[in-house]
Amino acid sequence: MKKISVGIADLRIAQSPNVLISYGLGSCVGVALHDPFEKIGGLAHVMLPTASGIRTGDPLKYADSAIEMIVVRMVDAGCARGALLAKMAGGADMFLCSASDVRPKIGERNVEAVRAKLKELRIPLVAEDVGGNYGRTVELETATGVFTVRSVRLGSKRL
Questions:
Q1: Model confidence pLDDT, tens digit, residues 103-132
Q2: Annotation: CATH topology of 3-158
Q3: Closest-CA residue to 43 (of 12, 85, 86)
Q4: Residue 38 and residue 89: Cα distance in Å, rounded?
Q5: How do the domains of the chain map onto residue ranges?
Q6: Is 79 known to be catalytic?
Q7: Cα–Cα distance measured from residue 123 to residue 115, given in angstroms and rounded to the nearest whole number
Q8: Which of 14, 28, 47, 66 is an active site residue?
Q9: What does the alpha-carbon distance between residue 139 and residue 3 come to, in Å, rounded to a whole number?
Q10: What is the H or E stretch that residue 112 is in?
């Protein structure tokens, strides 16, 4: 088994028994897709909600375009699009100073963008650990589809 790191504005695809891992999700969202039959997984670390209206830049930064790309890569790797299941974590509000803070909540916007794109693509979102005000590290086990979410504050969860 090999652990494959997924950086910010990055995505990776791997086959069983490898594990995909992404560190330090704050307002960013880790989006995991898994095909339980082929035992192939994909993980994207998205920073911003949408690439709509943006003509330049890295499409892996954005929830909408990164999810489209991960689906294409997984299908190219042999996955059936209809077999894909999604899980996500992150989308924290890391810098909330007070309840009256009116700054845009990028974490919430990222989570909503992921949900919207998955719904548009008809990919079921079967588990999530989002929000709060703390960072997370995530791991996707390609053999099982288990998505482990770790945080200093709350320990580990297996989704």
A1: 668 999 999 999 999 999 999 999 999 999
A2: 60s Ribosomal Protein L30; Chain: A; (3.30.1330)
A3: 12
A4: 23
A5: 3-158
A6: no
A7: 10
A8: 28
A9: 9
A10: helix 106-120
